[in-house]
TrEMBL record:
SUPFAM superfamilies noted in UniProt: FMN-dependent nitroreductase-like (SSF55469)
Record organism: Paenibacillus hodogayensis
Protein name: Nitroreductase family protein
Superkingdom, taxonomy of origin: Bacteria
Bilayer-spanning residue ranges: none
InterPro entries in the record: NAD(P)H_nitroreductase (IPR052530), Nitroreductase (IPR029479), Nitroreductase-like (IPR000415)
PANTHER family: NAD(P)H NITROREDUCTASE YDJA-RELATED (PTHR43821)
Annotated Nitroreductase domain residues: 7-166
Length: 191
């Protein structure tokens, strides 16, 4: 499969089957993604892996911990809250990615960009092997309680959670915005 075809055909997968994802495969794909990204310096980001049933359950609990403290959640039936937790606990593997924060804004942006670029490559490499992924940056989970529960330090920046697993059905692709709609020509005479 050509790279262009791989990029065109890759989809975010949100419904995974129960087939386990080997931690060794995730590490192998991540190592390949790091090599392909080819940063000049050692990447300044890290991953927290949740692959066991207990770890996935703890991650799901952590994702909703702050929300549980809200008065509004008390109005939601416990069965619905438990269903949300179970949905995320059933995902075969999740990779929490954090970049080093840095007082130098440029350096911090480079750390974040390096993590993002590597994750994009990870998705493509996974897709090549039949492994689907969805990159989760939901604002709902971005809070100090979640960060503390999963081990994100004060000197780190949350990049996202890459949920991953095998799937039975490939979702249809969505329409893509033509490049011309994102194109502006800078002119010297315009003011």
């Amino acid at each position: 499969m050509s790279l262009a075809q791989l990029i065109r055909e890759r989809r975010s997968i949100r419904r995974f089957n129960r087939q386990p994802v080997a931690q060794e495969l995730v590490v192998e794909l991540l190592q390949r993604a790091v090599r392909l990204y080819g940063a000049d310096e050692e990447p300044r980001w890290r991953c927290i892996y949740a692959g066991t049933e207990e770890a996935r359950r703890r991650l799901a609990d952590s994702m909703i911990a702050k929300t549980r403290q809200s008065r509004l959640v008390k109005l939601i039936p416990n069965k619905m809250v438990e269903s949300f937790i179970q949905k995320f606990a059933d995902i075969p593997a999740s990779l929490i990615v954090v970049a080093d924060a840095d007082p130098d804004r440029r350096r911090q942006e480079e750390n974040y960009a390096s993590a993002c670029g590597t994750l994009q490559l990870l998705q493509l490499l996974g897709w090549e092997r039949g492994l689907g992924m969805a990159w989760d940056t939901e604002r709902l989970i971005q809070n100090e309680l979640f960060f503390e529960n999963v081990g994100i330090g004060a000197s780190e920046q949350f990049v996202g959670i890459m949920h991953m697993g095998y799937f039975d059905k490939t979702p249809r692709g969505r329409g893509r915005t033509p490049a011309e709609k994102k194109w502006t020509v800078f002119r010297a005479d315009a003011r």
